[in-house]
Every structure is written in structure tokens, then in C-alpha cells.
Amino acid sequence: MKKLNVDVAVIGGGTAGLASYRAAKEHTDSVVLIEGGKFGTTCARVGCMPSKLLIAAAESAHNAQHTAPFGVFVDGDVRIDGQKVMQRIRDERDRFVGFVVDAVDGIPDQDKLIGKATFISETELQIDDHTLLTAKRIVIATGSRPAYPAVWNDLGDNLIINDDVFNWTDLPKSIAVFGPGVIGLELGQSLHRLGVEVLMFGMGGQVGPFTDPEVMAYAQKIFSEEFYLDADSTVKEMIQKEGNVQITYIDKQGIEQVKIVEYVLAATGRRPNIDNLGLDNITIENDSRGVPIADPFTMQTSVPTIFIAGDASNQIPLLHEAADQGKIAGSNAGVYPNIRVGLRRSSIAAVFTDPQIAMVGLSRKQVMEKLGSCGCFETGAVSFEDQGRSRVMLKNKGLLHIYAEQGTGRLLGAEMIGPQAEHLAHLLAWAHQNRMTISQMLDMPFYHPVIEEGVRTALRDLNAKLRLGSAMISECMECGPGC
């Protein structure tokens, strides 16, 4: 068995791992990157990029089918060629992955190890059966994988995860989606708009990432109007039948239904890839899921020489978060023991449904945990149903809630569903990171007519509730003439 000694070993060649490798290399040349599967990020291969390609096709189909309200009529039916839809998705997906692979190809061969890493001790890793690696510091960046009940494996090839969708050569006729979270909503709505019959089932009433009950209820109503969605479902049985899946469930009217679908999509969450690393061979503090706990500002675990980053950590599983965490972990592994606090940005998340979903800063649940006992916060609200620019575009569905602290008037966070929420979220995230007050935000320019005027409406509503400004006299002047 080959033996190697390095300063820093990074386990995982995804977004966090590559960021860790590059950051560590700024401080030492003795760095090795270990990958047990294919190089290339979850985002490029099976996540944010291919899903957005599917969403783009779905938006095109939906827009073509809904021109009549503008007085524009398309003769004949809109035809969706599933094979061409999926061909473009695969081609563009491979192109995005190619960029990542090219970056990996630029890493010197001596800095790459292919194989599964297992902890032997806090400083020793065995790579398959070919290498024993001793590293002074180690970064865990092994990513995550879909998680679902093991009994679903009885469905065989009819059970799929989001990874499988992007390898299709054609669109199916029907699918049952389990999990109306980020992945389930994006894929489920897109497939519905591309002509696939979609049934979506959830548990406990949760829809999307929301913690604000009013915003979540609005989202459930909007999506339920477009396709079948039961966020608190009772599914009695799922069995394979003649190459398909037969689902027996109680519908929202309490009536037992039996439906046949081609596939069941498990979108019930993801789990960190840390269970096969041999962590039981070392003494490290874990959370309730068995994931190593890390300081969010240094990414250092309870073992001072071990760091963790990205989806493998107990923190936010988003690409930009993985990149930031990877940079912090790799840099600190490189400069250890002189570790430093890294830049952590305000939380921002988006779901690319229609209407879009976004979360900024503290969620309502976090605000309640922090200030709920004293009632020291207020909520500003705006509906996009009467917002001027939204109505012009017939994109007038949505609800925005913004939270601020009593006394200081400082922005705490926001939850929203609405048109172009991805852009509204960025404005709010920048304000949150700069610790702006609601009054300061209202001093910023707002053009007319733009959807951002809806943010101003919510801010003025919030400012009045904080008793830092007067109540709105004319909502029309806030949402824009024509509301």
C-alpha cells in the first residue's frame, strides 16, 4: 500500500471541496484532493443548473399557452416535444459539468487521489485499498445525497430521484412527487407545465421552505390551483403494477383514490454523506443526525485539525454557502493553528417556481425564537395581486412578509412568494447584511413602475407598525397607479 504525507487533505471534489482545495493551496503546496466518484458539483450535474433548464422549458411552454389574456392568439395547439426538451437539458447540463471537469483537469495529478476515504485516526485516511494518507489537517466536503424511506426501494426502477430526471430521453406521461419542498416544487411544477400529469404529496402541511404560516398557506393555495397538491396526505399503498406504480391514497375530500403513474419521484430531502467515512474511528462531536458540528465562522469541528464544509456540514445546503464554507475551511486548514473568522454573508435562498419563493435573513421561526417571547418585532406585508407592474405582466400572485425589530427598526428577515422574488430577495439580503433599518431602506430609490415598489409598500407598512412613520393613506400610490 502506498503511503503519503501531506499538510492538508480535502475529501470531496464538489463545490465545497474545490473551494477548500484552492484556499488551502494559497498557504501550502502540500494539499491533496480526494474524490470517490465523479468530479463535478451537485449543482452542475443534478441540481441548480439542470433544474433551471427544465424550468426554462416549462416557462416557455406555459407562456405560449397563456397569451390570450393579452389579446394575443396562437393558432393551433402548442406542441411539446419531450425528446427535444430533454436533449437540450442533457446537452447544456453536460456543458456546465464540462466547465467543472476542465477546472479539475487543471489541478496537478499529484494533488488528486481517486478513491473512497475512510478515517483511521484523526490524522490518517485510507483511500480504498491503495493508499494510506497521513494529513496534518483534513477538510470533509463530501456533499449530500437524496434521502427517502427504504421501503420505497421495492418500487424498483419506477422510483427515481432528481438525479435521474436529467438523464431522461423523453418526458413521461405521469409522475407522483413526494415532498413539496424546494426540489419537489421546482420539478413538479415544471413537469406539469410540460404536459406531465403530476400528483404531489407531502406530510405535516409543509410547503416549500416557509416558516411563516400565512405565506405558506398562500403558497399552498396557489400551487394547488395549478396541479394536485396535498401537503398533509394519507397514502395507503404504493405497489408496482404492470410496469407502473399504483398509488392508493385519501384525497383532500376524504375519498379513497387509486391512481396509476409511471414514476414516483422521491424529493423528501437530502442527507449528508458522512455515514461511510469511518467517523466512529475518531472522537468528534456530532449533532442529532450524526453530522460533525462546526463553528459557522471557522468551519472547525471539535477536533481542531478537522474542518467540514458544504452539504456535508450541519449548515445551509446551498451552492453559494458551500463555496463560502469551503473557502473558510480550506484557508483555515492551510494556516492552522492561526485560524481566522471567515466572511459569512446574510442568508438568502430562492426557489424557482412560478411564482418564485425566497427567504432572506432570519426566518419567521427564528425571529419568534429570538424575540417572540417579548413581542419585540413587527411584520410588514404586501400582496402582489394588486401591485401595478405585476398586474401589467399578469404575474400578480404573491405575498411578502418583512420582519423588523421594535426599538431599533432594524431589518431581521423576510419570507415571500411572488414575481421575480429572486431579485427582491437580493435587495433585502444586501440591506440585511448592511444592518439597515427600515427607515434607511425607505430612503433608497424606487423607480416606477417596477415590482420593487411592492417591497416599498411592505416597508412602509412595517415602518408604521414600528411607529417610526405614518400609516399609508393610499395603497394605490404605494403599489403603483392602476392597482
From TrEMBL:
Top-rank taxon, per record: Bacteria
Gene3D superfamilies according to UniProt: 3.30.390.30, FAD/NAD(P)-binding domain, Fe,Mn superoxide dismutase (SOD) domain
Occurrences of domain Pyridine nucleotide-disulphide oxidoreductase dimerisation (ranges): 349-458
Pfam families attached to this UniProt entry: Pyr_redox_2, Pyr_redox_dim
Entry keywords, A to Z: FAD, Flavoprotein
Cofactor(s) required for function per UniProt: FAD
Residue ranges occupied by any FAD/NAD(P)-binding domain in the UniProt entry: 7-326
Record's keyword annotation contains Ion transport: no
Family: Belongs to the class-I pyridine nucleotide-disulfide oxidoreductase family.
Protein name: Dihydrolipoyl dehydrogenase
